[in-house]
Write a structure and sequence with these properties.
single chain, alpha+beta, 5 strands
């Protein structure tokens, strides 16, 4: 039985990156992208509810070697949700 790939979500801010040191397993990269979009929308909602400045530009998804395999921008995360609700 093959194990699922592990992906790391590095949260990008305007001047820094919060690195994910644990990672999480997903069946596919598309599943990881979808989860990253959900995560971004949740973080923005939390910041809005707390009336905090939103200093998040996206999530950089890497594989265990550190290679960037995908980038989900805040704009992409919000727009993907809006277009899927039409």
């Amino acid at each position: 039985m093959d194990s699922m790939p592990v992906y790391f979500f590095h949260l990008k801010h305007s001047e820094s990156i919060d690195e994910d040191l644990k990672g999480i397993s997903f069946d596919t990269l598309d599943d990881a992208r979808s989860n990253a979009s959900d995560t971004l929308r949740d973080l923005v909602a939390e910041n809005l509810r707390a009336a905090q400045h939103i200093d998040i530009s996206g999530i950089e998804i890497t594989d265990p070697s550190g290679s960037v395999v995908a980038m989900v921008s805040l704009e992409d995360a919000v727009l993907s949700r809006l277009t899927s609700e039409k």
